[in-house]
Known about the structure:
This protein has helices spanning 16-37, 41-49, 56-83. By secondary structure, the protein is mostly helical.
Amino acid sequence: MLGAAPFAQxxxxxxxxxxxxxLSLPMLVLFWLGLQSQGGFTLGLQALVAPSFENVDxxxxxxxxxxxxxxxxxxxxxxxxxxx
Length: 84
């Protein structure tokens, strides 16, 4: 096609993989800070694998935090895929 840009066009000398990595770093920092405020990474993984119904923090992580995080990842992936 006339005027069509190449698929892996470099913007400002940055490859698409580098741009994706650069843009995902703030997400990882926010993920870590959000999980630390909820009780830490180990509690988050424990709540994901086998939540204890006696610990309210684990229930909040299991029923509120992990589903929101997974939906955010899926929505971001779909949005990025749609842009291709």
